[in-house]
């Protein structure tokens, strides 16, 4: 079969070489973007007088039919036609005849593929932002129900200080907010049209790049044709923002997995988001959280492979750049899917409030309270730390907790202790009082919920 670019070739192509070079198995995902780009291009060719109105009408008619067939999944691609761009051009020519060959006037596959990727990344970024927003809403809803649910806060995965469960959940809302803003910011750079840059040097035809940019919803055009066809920074930014999102989700996954274990026993996942074991009848496994944690690896992998692929490329387009696609496509599916799974998982999880709060009765996470108590009564904090450390050691020897110590034990440690110490070390009381800005005190958490609600409502 003859190639669309076959003029200067004398040997027949070999099927296995074609197969190695082809991107059609994966870039068919860009079919809609490619046709939309072509429609805008051909319309511009007519307004600038490069082709006639009649020619445009015929080509546009053909493109609309292809669009329809693509939506119905009826287009048959050929590996010999290498990629989505050449496949569609061939199908168009078969449909409308030689006039279809005018479509590619003043255009190259290099600006065409860059355009398709811009359109694709823009759409996926917007989807990702709305999926983040949904997950944030679900986290806020859970947080609203658990302002006064006390549970252990950890550092080094050792019990540290009791916190409000809402405060913990809200930490993820703010992490996701940064993710949202990162994506939003990246849209500025996605929102620039490379179309009309030709292969690398622009074109002699009197094209109007602003017209196609506007028709396709771009805010601007690339200033330099060589930069336009060789830039994949916007894909890198998408993969990089995605990597941070997955890192965040992976941390939350780890927590969900720990919390749903018998050892922690803080939550139970809804049946919909858990699986059983083929051999152990008692099992309820947090597979979805584990999978999200696991899938983080492939997203990082796509970022690393694109960074590495681009690093040695001379200007302008190089075929290496065809390798930008699979990682980007996979990342979009992985991250959007993970965000959706998380929204469902968080929304339906059962929070074991009793177990959470009773676990704070059996630990030393109120020790800072005791040290602060002494410091508030005038003892230098460093000294207070030492006194309480000794009390904790005493408890460990005795097999009890700080609340179990008698007044005489307290007073032999320091005369500053009086009866009110028992109230101070109550975890609920301890959390309630931490109302420094951004702290876990109930009042402060209620303020934070209002703030989060406002931030989400603005979107
Ligand atoms: N399939 C190619 C890609 O994905 C399209 C651009 C090809 N351009 C070229 N001059 N070979 O990058």
TrEMBL record:
InterPro entries linked: Arg_succ_lyase_C (IPR029419), Argininosuccinate_lyase (IPR009049), Fumarase/histidase_N (IPR024083), Fumarate_lyase_CS (IPR020557), Fumarate_lyase_fam (IPR000362), Fumarate_lyase_N (IPR022761), L-Aspartase-like (IPR008948)
Catalytic activity: 2-(N(omega)-L-arginino)succinate = fumarate + L-arginine
Main location: cytoplasm
GO biological process: L-arginine biosynthetic process via ornithine
Pfam families registered for this protein in UniProt: ASL_C2 (PF14698), Lyase_1 (PF00206)
EC number(s) per entry: 4.3.2.1
Family according to the record: Belongs to the lyase 1 family. Argininosuccinate lyase subfamily. In the N-terminal section; belongs to the lyase 1 family. Argininosuccinate lyase subfamily.
Name the UniProt record assigns to this protein: Argininosuccinate lyase
Organism whose genome encodes this protein: Salsuginibacillus halophilus
């Amino acid at each position: 079969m003859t190639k669309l670019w076959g003029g200067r070739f004398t040997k027949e192509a070999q099927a296995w070489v074609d197969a190695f070079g082809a991107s059609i198995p994966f870039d068919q995902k860009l079919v809609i973007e490619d046709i939309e780009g072509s429609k805008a291009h051909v319309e511009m060719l007519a307004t600038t007088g490069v082709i006639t109105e009649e020619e445009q009408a015929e080509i546009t008619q053909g493109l609309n039919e292809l669009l329809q067939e693509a939506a119905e999944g009826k287009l048959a691609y050929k590996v010999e036609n290498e990629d989505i761009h050449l496949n569609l051009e061939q199908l168009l020519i078969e449909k409308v005849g030689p006039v279809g060959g005018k479509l590619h006037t003043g255009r190259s596959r290099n600006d065409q593929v860059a355009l398709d990727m811009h359109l694709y990344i823009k759409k996926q970024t917007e989807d990702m932002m709305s999926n983040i927003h949904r997950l944030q809403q679900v986290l806020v809803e859970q947080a609203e129900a658990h302002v006064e649910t006390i549970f252990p806060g950890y550092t080094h995965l050792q019990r540290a200080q009791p916190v409000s469960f809402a405060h913990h959940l809200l930490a993820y809302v703010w992490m996701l907010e940064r993710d949202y803003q990162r994506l939003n910011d990246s849209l500025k750079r996605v929102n620039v049209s490379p179309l009309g840059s030709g292969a690398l040097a622009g074109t002699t035809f009197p094209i109007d790049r602003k017209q196609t940019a506007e028709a396709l919803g771009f805010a601007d055009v690339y200033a330099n044709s060589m930069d336009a066809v060789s830039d994949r920074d916007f894909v890198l930014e998408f993969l990089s923002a995605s990597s941070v999102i997955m890192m965040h989700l992976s941390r939350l996954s780890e927590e969900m997995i720990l919390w749903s274990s018998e050892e922690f026993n803080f939550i139970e996942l809804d049946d919909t988001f858990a699986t059983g074991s083929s051999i152990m009848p008692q099992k309820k496994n947090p597979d979805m959280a584990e999978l999200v944690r696991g899938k983080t690896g492939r997203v990082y992998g796509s970022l690393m492979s694109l960074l590495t692929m681009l690093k040695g490329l001379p200007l302008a387009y190089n075929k290496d750049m065809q390798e930008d696609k699979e990682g980007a496509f996979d990342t979009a599916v992985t991250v959007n899917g993970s965000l959706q799974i998380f929204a469902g998982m968080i929304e339906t999880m059962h929070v074991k409030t009793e177990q959470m709060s009773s676990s704070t009765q059996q630990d030393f996470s109120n020790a800072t309270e005791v040290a602060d108590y002494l410091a508030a009564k005038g003892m230098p904090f460093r000294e207070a730390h030492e006194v309480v450390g000794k009390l904790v050691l005493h408890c460990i020897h005795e097999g009890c907790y700080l609340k179990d110590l008698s007044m005489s034990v307290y007073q032999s440690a320091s005369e500053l202790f009086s009866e009110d110490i028992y109230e101070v070390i109550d975890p609920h009381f301890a959390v309630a009082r931490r109302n420094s800005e951004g702290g876990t005190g109930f009042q402060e958490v209620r303020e934070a919920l209002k703030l989060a609600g406002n931030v989400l409502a603005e979107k």
